[in-house]
Amino acid sequence: MIIVTGATGKLGSMTVERLLAHIPAEQLGVSVRDPQKAQHLQAKGVRVRKGDFNDADSLAYAFEGATQVLIVSSDRFGEASVQLHRTAIDAAKKAGASRILYTSHMGSSPSSHFAPMIDHAATEEALQTSGVAYTSLRNGFYTASALMLLGNALSTGELAAPEDGPVSWTAHPDLAEAAAIALAEQRLDGLSPGLTATEAIDLAGIAAIASELTGRPVRRVVVSDDAYRDTLISHGVPEAQAHMLLGIFRASREGEFADIDPTLGQLLGRSPLSVRDVLKASIDAAK
């Protein structure tokens, strides 16, 4: 049985839906913190069990009978995040899973300027020392994050953020399909190549695309790191999180997210969705 964690989250839920196109529902189980939110999956024949990375006993129950487990990375950061992942890896191993998959990042590195990349690297080390076959899906930076950085620039006409660099923005649906294929067809062993779209683009490029799609000018405005952090804090973002978010810009300036790789397109059998595709869909949906 294939077990998917975080199956009510954005990436996890998409992965489950795509898996159902590849395998029978009775061969699929999900581990979720709130089973009530996954009743629609149970109605389709998917096994739904409560599992929490903070509770190893709950994972033993949720992972029972697993042949493969997909660990969708937590939304925490720092050592707390890595410990949650270690707990899940240990639970998958004890459940007898022959393969563990993890949603990592193409920028995974112990020396990254962006803290979550350090967490991904530490989790990959735990996978490598687990003694179980593994796949670390090194996903491109989510295009959804680019839309968040774009924020209300479509109405204000200004995309204000610190100096950045090109990023290989990649869409959730494509990464979910890749995860489903990796599970159902047992593709991509070990540390995967970067699962990225076909171009790396900076915020100035995103502003230009937004201008073209809307017919209204969107100007890229560079602000200092300190000013950006202070603005985040003034809007209620905790100081530690604001400092962490600044790391996205520091890392992209160093080219940490600029690499592109053909593997995702080869896996999908088509071109991955571009920033333009995702932004256009978002604009159309808002009309």
From TrEMBL:
NAD(P)-binding domain spans which residues?
Answer: 6-143
Official protein name in the record: NAD(P)H-binding protein
Annotated organism of origin: Cohnella hashimotonis
